[in-house]
Amino acid sequence: MVKVKFLGHAAFLIEGSKKILIDPFLTGNPQAAAKPEELDADLILITHAHGDHIGDAVDIARRTGAKIVAMYDIANYLVEGNEGITTIGMNYGPTEVEGVKIVQVPAWHSSSDGKYGIGNACGYIIELDGVKIYHAGDTFVFRDMELFAELYGPIDLALLPIGGHFTMGPREAAKAVEFLRPRKVVPMHYNTWPPISADPEEFRGLVGEKAEVVILKPGEEIEL
């Protein structure tokens, strides 16, 4: 059994034979369902270099010994001046870390530290204990998502942004579901701040019978 807990915004904790944190933005996150010091992890996956996605990754990695997986440029950026952490830089494609199969896939979004562009944005398809989970990162919909389903499906759970303004809104995310064909989908990256206000029930209605939409409040989890 694999558990996926929504920590708020785009942050998730995946728990099975390994613990995987994705985009652990907790400090300064008004939705945060945990404090950084409350979390443990084997791996931390970062989708891009914006502060609301890198978040507390370095502090958690230093405390727990978790390895940070990120785009090569971002991995190098994080390790500079941050002794005591281990980063694994990669680029679009498959790898395996700590027995976890990971495919880093493209996302349509910018990636910077607020001043300089760093690497490219990405999403991840993770296979843990036979369960396949796609975290889209911040992105707009694009037809290559059909290729993700063809190459790496069936996808058990897709984690998709629906907040608009910086990412897909409900309409675009529903089209992404059509391309990805996941069994279940959890909306994310909405209602953290006013610019990304969205109604997850609208998203559910647009998805219809294409997949089971599971709306999680921060701190809630789904079992797969």
TrEMBL record:
Superkingdom classification of source: Archaea
GO molecular function, one term: hydrolase activity
A Pfam entry, by short name: Lactamase_B_3
Record flagged with keyword Hydrolase: yes
Record's keyword terms, sorted: Hydrolase
Listed InterPro entries: Metallo-B-lactamas, RibonucZ/Hydroxyglut_hydro, UPF0173, UPF0173_UPF0282_UlaG_hydrolase
Family matches, as Gene3D superfamilies: Ribonuclease Z/Hydroxyacylglutathione hydrolase-like
Record has Hydrolase as a keyword: yes
Family statement: Belongs to the UPF0173 family.
HAMAP family assigned: UPF0173
Name of the featured protein: UPF0173 metal-dependent hydrolase CL1_1417
Source species of the chain: Thermococcus cleftensis (strain DSM 27260 / KACC 17922 / CL1)
